[in-house]
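User: I'll paste a sequence; please echo it back and then give the predicted structure.

Assistant: Echoing your sequence first, then the prediction.
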Amino acid sequence: MFSSKQPKLEIIIGQESAVKGDIISKGTVRIDGGLEGNITADCVIIGEKGVITGDAVVRQMVVGGRMVGTIRASETVEIQRTGDVRGDLFSTRLSIADGGRFEGRSSMHASKEIGYRGGVVEAA
């Protein structure tokens, strides 16, 4: 699921919590509750009950819950069997497990063209 260069877990939004606003982190962010806003992080994990409504700029993302917005990933997006993504997706690799849902447009690019680069957002 993750590469060996996964940074430490920096932020957790618990199942009983909701955040409204943007999040920027150089580490891993886990969302088990709700986030209404944009997120920029090295890695984002959306748990089965988690929901993000906003855009994401990441190196990698794992979606086990719901994501509504644009995802720009410099490496990988993994939609798990319980995952539901609604919006456009730009990535170098995309994996959708049996049962996972994706509604939107997908565009595959070289990693240097999009996404997160060590705390720096690069334009597509």
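Residues 9-115 form one domain. The chain has a mean pLDDT of 89.
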